[in-house]
Design goal:
Order of helices and strands: HHHHHHHHHHH
Radius of gyration: 18 Å
Helix content: over 70%
Shape: globular
Structural class: mainly alpha
Distance between the termini: 28 Å
Strand content: under 5%
Number of helices: 11
Number of domains: 1
Number of strands: 0
Largest sheet: none
Length: 232
């Protein structure tokens, strides 16, 4: 556990040194300004949710992929994995770091629009684990590519596919099977955090979905990462 905390601290220092945190903060500030200007509009919560999926959640996806590609190109990974640093700590520390950065961006957005009129616990768990899920997707895609451009191009169909539950949320469709997608759990928690009277069934389903999908997908992407990146 001590090694994990050291790695998380190290990851934050690296991202700050490369101005990643500053850049993300600047983008988030821009979105916060937009939200502030429209916060009194009807259904602003739906706009916030859309922004969360387009910025904070994508932070983990994009930067975990790009950082791994750069480390592969610079032959950093082979050197890392002959040290006592385990592959689990390498991945988990990076996932936690990027998800934390994304989460605080999402939190800034909802605080701007809602003040304290939302359930912090439901929102925090939903937003943070949504960011974690997108990190998983980034690891999956980067395991099958060695170039940043290819990574971004291959990301598009996966991101579209995994975001299909948003169609139900925006009432463009009413497809029950979309509720089984991994992103539905976090979406349920965030949506119900905005409500004065949350839907208990949706909350229960959201927590169950997260509890099932998070370890399952981590196991899946870890196996892919080991086979395609570490052992090649």
């Amino acid at each position: 556990m001590t090694q994990l905390f050291k790695q998380i601290k190290w990851q934050f220092l690296i991202f700050q040194k490369n101005n990643l945190i500053t850049m993300i903060a600047g983008i988030t500030a821009f979105y916060v300004l937009i939200i502030y200007l429209i916060k009194d509009f009807a259904n602003v919560e739906k706009f916030i949710t859309l922004l969360i999926y387009n910025d904070p959640a994508l932070v983990g996806f994009i930067f975990i992929g790009i950082s791994i590609i750069l480390e592969k190109d610079q032959e950093v990974l082979p050197a890392l994995f002959v040290t006592p640093l385990s592959q689990h700590i390498y991945l988990i520390s990076r996932i936690i770091t990027l998800s934390t950065i994304g989460f605080f961006g999402a939190l800034a957005m909802v605080l701007t629009a809602k003040g304290t009129s939302f359930n912090l616990i439901h929102f925090s768990i939903g937003a943070f684990l949504t960011c974690v899920l997108f990190c998983f997707m980034g690891i999956f895609v980067v395991s099958y590519t060695t170039e940043i451009l290819h990574f971004l191009l291959r990301a598009i169909p996966l991101l579209i596919f995994m975001s299909l539950p948003l169609l139900n949320y925006f009432e463009l469709t009413d497809l029950s099977f979309l509720k089984l997608f991994p992103v539905q759990g976090g979406l349920n928690l965030m949506v119900n955090s905005y409500r004065e009277s949350p839907n208990v069934w949706e909350l229960v389903f959201g927590y169950i979905s997260i509890a099932v999908w998070t370890p399952l997908l981590y196991w899946f992407v870890y196996r892919i990462f080991m086979a395609r990146v570490v052992k090649t």
